[in-house]
Amino acid sequence: MPSLVIDTASNRAISSSNSLSSAIGPLRVPVWIGVFCALLTTNADPDLWGHVRFGLDMLSTGRLTTSDPYSYTSDIAWLNHEWLSEVLMGAAYRTLGSVGLVAVKTLLALGILALMAPVFRRASEIWRWPSALLVVAALGPVVLSIRPQLWTFFFVVALCRILNAAPVYRWSLPLMFALWVNLHGGWIVGAGIVVLWSALEIAGVASGRPSRWISVGVPTLCAVATLANPYGANAWVFIATTVRLSRPDIVEWRPLWMQPAWAFALWLLAVGWATFAVRRARVLRPEAIAIVLCLAFASLRVLRLLPVFVPVSIMLLLPYVQPLTFATERVWPKGRTLVDLAFIWVAVLALSWPGSATCVQLQGSWQPDVAAARALAVAHPSGRLATTFNWGQYAIWHFGPRARVSIDGRRETVYSDQQLHRQLAVALGEDEGLEELARTLPEYVWLPTALSERTRRWLTAHEYRIDIQTPQSFVAVRNDLPRIEPVPRVTIPCFPGLQTAPAEASE
User: What is the DSSP string of 413-469?
Assistant: First the structure.
């Protein structure tokens, strides 16, 4: 009789587990749809033109440029902390055009998936697909674009894999940081993870206690490795003075309560997942929990860290989560998996049409006014072009260095905080900005119509005429210069727009 009771309880557990697996299993469909959409769709962000242009310049000259040839207001030496990313992007574009850029993004995305795949594969199905869907929701939007930031996602996932492996593998971290410091400033997040993890080991709080040579030597060598960049210790100074939890003028650096509701909802889901994972853990790792807590707080304060918080939490916690029951899970037939993938491919192709995997699409409210840009391109502007932050690198690609811009997305790498504030005041028509226009008298002014109405009125009253006026933007030209004529409006859906190659780079 007792064995009958045990068997009955076991059967109930198996039935419960299979029912839960049946309910959660279909989540694999949105996971794969999200993955393939992220791989097949590529959008241009405002900085893409600059990243590729600067990479092409470095390939042409064989050196880094410290004096900026593209802006007439830059007031600090150019510290290009993403130079290696830009060289790789420039090489990809020079070799294969936009296809090369898409290939770089796709390889990085696949690399991230490859690093995470063993963790998902070893997890029970009940944990696998909700965790994977959370990762796709967090990383999907950022993987749609081509940015140096992708290197940080790749390396932070690799770092978590190494920290969960045998301690001896940590000796590979200094080499990783030597590359990371030249690819993207997000290496500081990885450095914080390594330091906190090692400090808890040294303090005896962590679950493992490797050799002191590892706990002390690896972080020390990683710090030394970050000096392997063209700027040496100045790269540390740059990160220390620019990376902070408060940069309200950048949307990505604002707190979650100032973001769309989906961002806060995703954060809540990630925190809930991490809490449940800790409660279900068969082994508690205080060092992993501490890192997850720190990133949870940081990502609440800064939206840009949310796509880091989610995969780090899953990589550090999921390997130690025990199944919800002790029952044997049902195995999905291979034939059904193939059918699922076939339907997913059809859905992805339908979603991405008429886009193409070889087209870097121009999408988003930040887009420059193509009609005004075409008119400027036909006029071959020379001199100074006052414009807005989001259009700066687009203008650098199409008009530079003959026409030098007032502001662009490089921010603190070439502009002081005072200069950034001054150029924002130009766009908004504030008194400080109008004083800047009166002092510099740039040859051309290209600004958004809705944002810069006061600036437009000031220009027409101070020796400027409005040659191009559209609902999206206006182009003001100094009265002593030839008139810019309107051109027929066309739609240019793919990067780089207007023309297939940048203007000649300045030596």
Answer: GT--HHHHHHHHHHHHT-HHHHHHHHHH--SEEEEETTT-HHHHHHHHTTTEEEEEE
Q: What is the dihedral of CA 482, 487, 490, 493, to 10 degrees?
A: -10
pLDDT digits (tens, 9 = 90+) for 148-196: 999 999 999 999 999 999 999 999 999 999 999 999 999 999 999 999 9
Residue 11: CB atoms within 10 A of its CB come to 11
| Average predicted confidence (pLDDT) for the chain | 87
- Give CA angle at 282 (278, 286), nearest 5°: 50
Task: Return the residue matching tokens 């979650």.
Answer: 256
| Dist CA 200 CA 294 (whole Å) | 14
Minimal CA–CA distance to 44: which of 360, 259, 461?
Answer: 360
Q: Which residue, 408, 364, 369, is CA-closest to 389?
A: 408
Phi, psi at residue 206, to the nearest 5°? -70, 160
What's the Rg (C-alpha) of the chain? 26
Phi, psi of 474 (to 5 degrees): -135, 155
Structure tokens at 185: 């400033």
- Locate the domains of the chain by residue range: 12-44+79-320, 370-478
Write the DSSP symbol of residue 132: H
Q: Which helix (DSSP H) or strand (DSSP E) does residue 375 occupy?
A: helix 370-379
What would the two tokens of residue 329 be?
């899970």
The confidence score (pLDDT) of residue 5 equals: 45
Q: Which of 386, 395, 380, 391 is nearest to 438 (CA)?
A: 386
Measured CA to CA, the distance from residue 222 to residue 105 in angstroms comes to 26
Please, which contacts does 256-262 make with residues 24 or more away whose CB atoms are closer than 8 Å? Answer: 256/299, 256/300, 256/301, 256/303, 256/306, 259/303
Coil, helix or strand at residue 227: coil
